[in-house]
Amino acid sequence: MKKLFALTPLLLSLFGCASTDSNSESTAVAGPTTTTAQARIGKAVVSPLTDLNLMPTNIPAVITQALNNPYQLPVNINCEALSEQVQALNAALGPDLDTFSREDKRTNIEKGSAMASDSAVGAIESTISGAVPFRSWLRKLSGAEKKSKELNEAIAAGIVRRSYLKGMGEALKCLPPAAPLNHETVTAQKSE
Fold it and tell me: Where is the signal peptide (predicted)?
């Protein structure tokens, strides 16, 4: 336990209090690996508070609506409305699978750096989570386990809702983000 408290100030100072503001543009400046590492360390540092159910988890309204009925027909079924709804879900959930590049264009040095960062962050996460005695029992008794399950269900409903809307957008022949990004079609359109 003493190790955890000794590491916490160091980690907070190294990673700028590990803030994970979803509206910040640090991804464009620092790169996705740095931001992901900061977010993971931030979650690891506050995990004891989460395990004791002392930190509230705010579920965005767009995700809560998806949880109520992920297959509800939208009020307006047109490309613009679908695009707005998909973008709102993207903001809450992060990017969808179709937006990732199929080819990893990073150099070997960048890949190695990402692997080293991932290993270091994993070690910090396991050290901090391992410092809490009887963690699983604490999570159950404090209600954190139930909150975690609710959060996972909400995320799953949001993903289903986004997929459903993109399917509707594809049927209407909308452009992304209202429809899935088809890499072959986009490549063909760019070459024309």
Answer: 1-18
pTM of the complete model? 0.60
Question: What is the Cα–Cα distance from 15 to 109, expressed in whole angstroms?
Answer: 22
Cα distance between residue 190 and residue 123, in whole Å:
43
Question: Per the structure, how many domains does the chain have?
Answer: 1
From first to last of its 192 residues, what are the pLDDT tens digits of the chain?
Answer: 454 444 444 444 444 443 434 333 333 333 444 567 777 777 777 766 666 666 777 889 999 999 999 999 999 999 999 999 999 999 999 888 888 765 667 788 887 887 888 888 777 767 766 666 677 777 777 777 888 889 899 999 999 999 999 999 999 999 999 999 885 544 444 445
Report the C-alpha gap between 2 and 83 in whole angstroms. 50
DSSP state, 74?
Answer: P
Which residue carries 């901090």 as its tokens?
128
Read off the tokens for 135.
């963690």
CA 39 to CA 45: how far, in whole Å?
Answer: 10
Q: Which domain holds residue 106?
A: 2-191
The helix-helix angle for 135-142 and 144-171 (nearest 10°) equals 80
Q: How far apart are CA 61 and CA 83, in angstroms?
A: 17
What gap in Å lies between CA 90 and CA 97, rounded to an integer?
11
